[in-house]
Design brief:
The structure holds two protein chains of two kinds. In chain A, a hairpin with a 4-residue loop joins strand 5 and strand 6 (74-75). Chain A is elongated, with a radius of gyration of 25 Å. Helices cover 22% and strands 35% of the residues of chain A. Chain A has two domains: 4-231, 3-Layer(aba) Sandwich (Rossmann fold), CATH 3.40.50.300; 243-371, Beta Barrel (OB fold (Dihydrolipoamide Acetyltransferase, E2P)), CATH 2.40.50.140. Chain A has nine helices and 22 strands. Chain A is of the alpha+beta class. In chain A, helix 2 (98-104) packs parallel to helix 4 (142-154). Chain B is mostly helical. Chain B has two domains: 70-345, MetI-like fold (Orthogonal Bundle), CATH 1.10.3720.10; 390-555, Orthogonal Bundle (MetI-like fold), CATH 1.10.3720.10. Chain B is 70% helix and 0% strand. Chain B has 28 helices and no strands. Chain B has helices at 2-20, 22-48, 56-59, 71-77, 82-117, 123-129, 132-135, 140-149, 152-155, 160-165, 171-174, 177-202, 205-213, 218-247, 250-256, 264-273, 277-302, 327-353, 369-372, 390-423, 428-438, 445-455, 470-480, 482-494, 498-506, 511-539, 556-566, 569-592. In chain B, helix 13 runs antiparallel to helix 14 (218-247) and helix 20 (390-423) packs across helix 23 (470-480). The longest helix of chain B has 36 residues, at 82-117. Chain B is globular, with a radius of gyration of 26 Å. Classes of the chains: A alpha+beta, B mainly alpha. The A-B interface holds A 50-52, 54, 70, 72-75, 77-80, 83-85, 87-89, 91, 93-95, 104-105, 107-108, 152, 156 and B 9-10, 12-13, 16-17, 20, 497, 499-500, 502-509, 513, 517-518, 521-522.
Chain lengths: 381, 599
């Protein structure tokens, strides 16, 4: 049906460039998430796509149709772009009933009354809103309101669905339920979806592709697993993951493979890594390892960084251990099964090895190589 | 060839793009309208105060109408007539404004303190009844005053005191400064009362209690804590009262003109009414200038300090001060005040309408003639009763129609201005529109009416000559009340999240439909009470319309003015009662709707 192509879209507000030369190809039926901290330009991008903001430059296509190209005088009106949008606050019209809200979206189509009712009822049925038709938005729970907003969007059968942080006003448990509902709905209806969120868990669980943005610029485009395991740069590595990934400044001692790194703060501490490609000797790098990819021993071992335990935080299923490298003041987070961590005591010394991770060039923040991923492609796309 | 098509396409694109931002399109339309109806009239006024009017050749043979001159400024400010044209009236205006402000602030503060801070009885009752002087026309008390204190030497018939006790009322008690100050002072009590009531109720009592804990006496707390905190509210009340008092017309006309006691506003009226336009323009400009400087001066003085009025908010509720053995005396005293100055005038007005012969206060003189009687040549020169006179009924209809039209139009335009101002927030358009819409506030009604009289006497620009039409009255009222309607429009639109409309945009719903089905329904609650308030205000307006009405477009208020000067007192007072009834009922409806009083 409708892929989306965005070419060099730039949007400025006064002196601030909210979106900077943004280019993206979204395939048909894709569920693409724009992910980033607040103020990164993700919502502006979505609003440009929806036609609620007018970019200063660039071109946008939905399918083969150009919907925005100022140089050729094209700017298809929002309502003619054949897309639907769910707002963060749902933007349900408080003076209309649930039915009124959903049916109002059908106005443009000028359908006969029975047809409107039939279409709306079908959607109510699909989203489990039967029996709520005569209620007003303020008489509904947050989750129900969210569903009405979705119903209003899909009732006009747009080719593209847009979501602007649709779950961020809900409590954690409800968010989980609605996440799986959205995923089911996307599978069923198969419309190309662009979803804006700052919640990486939402992005990871829902998307087929994630675009990580910062300061109006795309940092990385990839599948959830690519973005998580092979961050393209330090920003993505730092932003993705909860608890945050460990980022350890280090210096290459032996280029390898296998490479040997020393801590920047302590050239005596060394650690060997299962790399498959050579690095450059004496280069300053940043070692990026997920908390779950750290192995530790309580006895001294060669080729491992020494650290001291600070606190352990058992969560039931697993345990987080916070510690510090003995040299420097670098905080370390380790995640693992509870039984392995529960015996650790404050100030106990442990030795760290790294199962898999990424090495970034310290100066540029770009990925040099990844290690420990057994045959998976090196680095990120 | 290619270039022209590209250019054409680009301009089509630009136009289409502009229409996709309807707030810009409407903003531009409103801006043009505001410039035409507010800015240019003021410029016109200034310009024509420097030109010879048709009276010019009489003063100075040889000059032509429209020649540039400073003659009128000279005549008003420096000539041998300056004293009677300008200096004395200006002094009167200022001293009236000062006197009535002092009176209304003192009483307003004291009453607010009694009602908010003490254990007075019947607080609820006093709180609502003390607003009445503000709801009814400002000259209600003036008319009632005349009825009681009228001196037969000037009014023809005796007032109540004279008739009942044979008291020989001195002139200064029946007309002029003192009666005007008292009438206006009472009318403006609600201003200070409402503002101080709000400020006093909002003080966090912990602020005062901490001072008490530190050993401050009750008087010290009042002076060092309470007073400074409510000072900004007091200042605001002062400016409001003083600037409005300067421009007051009706009371000063009723109580001043019979003894040729002039003020600036009555001078403006008589100059313009006698077609001395140049002189009238100069006087009107001086009046505008005085009001503007007070309002702007206030913004400089209090603009920044105003903020701490609301500091604290709802702290713990303070225990009201016990009045002790003064509790009942204070309550009864206040009740007496209300009976004499709030309810009394209205009862007196009603009484007057039932008197067959004016000034005979006995029961034998009772009649319903002035309400339902037919024409009787021996009474009021054969004027039939109010409900029998086609002319009066016509004026009632006109007033209702004018108030209704003004309320509807200004309510709608208010939403539109609110829409433009809020949706383009941060832009120059937004700021200019908001400020221009506020401008009529600073032009006293009599001056505003004078300006419109001159401008619409002939057609200008795209506008036809409107003098003598109902449309001119409606236009003047709508523009004059824009400050109120636009401020409630702005706050109504503020409550509507832009996304509610953007959903409509995404669904391809056009602006007209979005406005009618989304914006207006959501703005309705706020706008409805604003409209009702405009209705009431228009119903009781005199100064704005007195120069603009013609016999064909007579209104209740202008009729009262005429009947009062012609001595048809019963008719005048009867129509007055109709207005009082409409405004009081209208106001209680506003309160039902939860609307706020716009001062």
């Amino acid at each position: 049906m409708s892929g989306i192509t965005i070419r060099d879209v730039t949007k400025r507000f006064g002196l601030v460039t909210a979106v900077d030369r943004f280019s993206l190809d979204i395939e048909d039926k894709d569920f693409l998430t724009l992910l980033g901290p607040s103020g990164c330009g993700k919502t502006t991008t979505l609003r440009c796509l929806a036609g609620l903001e007018e970019p200063d430059e660039g071109e946008i296509y939905i399918g083969d149709t150009c919907i925005f190209a100022p140089s050729r005088g094209i700017n298809v009106a929002s309502g003619k772009r054949n897309l639907g949008l769910v707002f963060q606050n749902y933007a349900l019209w408080p003076h209309m009933t649930v039915f009124g809200n959903v049916a109002f979206g059908l106005r443009k189509a000028k359908l006969p009354k029975q047809e409107v009712r039939r279409k709306a009822d079908k959607i109510f049925n699909l989203l489990g809103l039967d029996g709520f038709q005569k209620r007003y938005p303020h008489e509904l729970s947050g989750g129900q309101q969210q569903r009405v907003a979705v119903a209003r969007m899909i009732v006009t059968e747009p080719h593209v669905f847009l979501f602007d942080e649709p779950l961020s006003n809900l409590d954690a448990k409800l968010r989980m339920t609605l996440r799986s509902e959205l995923k089911r709905m996307h599978r069923m209806l198969g419309a190309t979806t662009v979803y804006v969120t700052h919640d990486q868990l939402e992005a990871m669980t829902l998307s087929t592709h994630i675009v990580v943005m910062d300061e109006g610029v795309i940092q990385q485009i990839g599948t959830p697993s690519e973005v998580y395991h092979f961050p393209a740069n330090l920003f993505v590595a730092d932003f993705m993951g909860n608890p945050r990934a460990n980022l350890i400044p280090a210096i290459v001692k032996e280029a390898g493979p296998p490479a040997v790194l020393t801590l920047k703060a302590d050239p005596e501490a060394t650690c060997s890594l299962p790399t498959e490609h050579p690095l450059v000797e004496n280069q300053e790098v940043v070692l990026n390892v997920r908390p779950e990819d750290i192995l530790f021993t309580t006895t001294k071992s060669e080729g491992a960084f020494p650290a001291k335990v600070h606190t352990t935080l058992p969560t039931g299923a697993e345990c987080l251990t916070y510690g510090r490298l003995v040299a420097g003041d670098q905080e370390i987070v380790i995640k693992g099964p509870e039984e392995a961590h529960i015996c650790l005591e404050t100030n106990q010394e442990i030795w760290l090895r790294f199962k898999r991770g990424n090495i970034f060039e310290a100066a540029s923040g770009k990925t040099l190589l990844s290690f420990g991923f057994n045959g998976r492609p090196m680095g990120a796309s | 060839m290619y270039e022209t098509t590209a250019l054409a396409r680009r301009s089509v694109y630009r136009v289409r793009r502009a229409f996709r931002r309807p707030e810009r399109v409407w903003g531009t339309i409103i801006l043009v309208a505001l410039i035409l109806l507010v800015v240019i009239p003021v410029i016109y006024l200034i310009q024509h105060s420097f030109m010879f009017d048709s009276s010019g050749p009489r003063y100075m043979p040889g000059v032509r109408v429209g020649d540039w001159t400073t003659f009128y400024w000279y005549r008003v400010l420096r000539s041998s007539l300056a004293n009677s044209i300008f200096a004395k009236p200006a002094l009167h205006s200022l001293s009236i404004a000062a006197g009535m402000t002092a009176m209304s602030l003192t009483l307003g503060c004291f009453l607010a303190w009694l009602v908010v801070r003490t254990d007075l009885h019947w607080k609820q009752f006093f709180s609502s009844v003390l607003i009445i002087p503000y709801i009814v026309p400002s000259w209600t008390i003036a008319l009632a005053w005349l009825m009681v204190f009228k001196n037969p030497r000037f009014g023809g018939t005796p007032g109540l005191l004279n008739a009942a006790f044979g008291a020989n009322i001195p002139i200064w008690a029946s007309y002029g400064y003192l009666p005007i100050v008292i009438s206006l002072g009472i009318h403006y009590i609600p201003y200070a009362f409402i503002m101080l009531r709000g400020a006093l109720a909002n003080i966090d009592s912990r602020l005062e209690e901490s001072a008490e804990l530190l050993g401050a006496s009750r008087f010290e707390v009042l002076r060092k804590i309470t007073f400074p905190i409510v000072l900004p509210a007091l200042g605001a009340a002062f400016v409001l009262t003083f600037s409005k008092g300067l421009g007051e017309f009706a009371t000063q006309a009723f109580l001043g003109l019979p003894i040729r006691y002039y003020t600036l506003s009555t001078r403006v009226y008589s100059a313009l009414n006698n077609r001395l336009y140049g002189e009238g323009y100069v006087l009107a400009l001086i009046l505008v200038l005085a009001t503007v400087s007070i309002v702007i001066g206030n913004q400089f003085l209090l603009g920044t300090r105003k903020r701490y009025v609301t500091i604290g908010g709802k702290g713990s509720r303070r225990r009201p001060m016990a009045l002790g053995r003064w509790r009942w005396p204070a309550t009864l005293l206040l009740l007496g005040f209300v009976v004499i100055f709030v309810i009394g005038p209205i009862v007196l007005l009603a009484w007057q309408t039932f008197m067959k012969y004016e000034g005979q206060f006995g029961l034998s003189n009772f009649t319903l003639h002035y309400w339902i009687g037919g024409s009787d040549p021996s009474l009021a020169e054969g004027q039939p009763g109010i409900f029998r006179s086609g002319y009066i009924l016509g004026a009632i209809k006109n007033s209702g129609l004018l108030a209704g039209t003004t309320a509807l139009a200004s309510g709608f335009i208010g939403i539109l201005i609110g829409y433009v101002v809020v949706r383009t927030r941060g832009s120059l358009l937004s700021r200019v529109t908001e400020n221009l819409a506020f401008m009529p506030y600073m032009i006293p009604g009599i001056a505003f009416g004078g300006i419109y009289l001159s401008i619409f006497a002939h057609s200008w620009g795209p506008l036809p000559a409107l003098y003598g039409t109902f449309a001119l009255l409606a236009l003047a009222c709508v523009v004059k009340y824009l400050p109120y309607s636009s401020s409630s429009g702005i706050s109504a639109i503020h409550q509507i999240d832009p996304s509610l409309e953007e959903v409509g945009v995404v669904h391809g719903i056009g602006w007209g439909m979005r406005f009618a089905r989304i914006v207006i329904p959501l703005a309705k609650p706020g706008i409805l009470s604003a409209m009702l308030l405009t209705f009431i205000t228009t119903m009781r307006v005199l100064d704005l319309v007195i120069l603009l009405v013609t016999p064909k477009t007579g209104l209740m208020t202008s009729l009262i003015f005429r009947y009062q000067t012609q001595g048809f007192t019963q008719h005048a007072y009867g129509i007055m009662l109709v207005i009082v009834l409409v405004t009081v009922v209208g106001h209680s409806l506003v309160q039902r709707l939860g609307g706020k009083i716009e001062l």
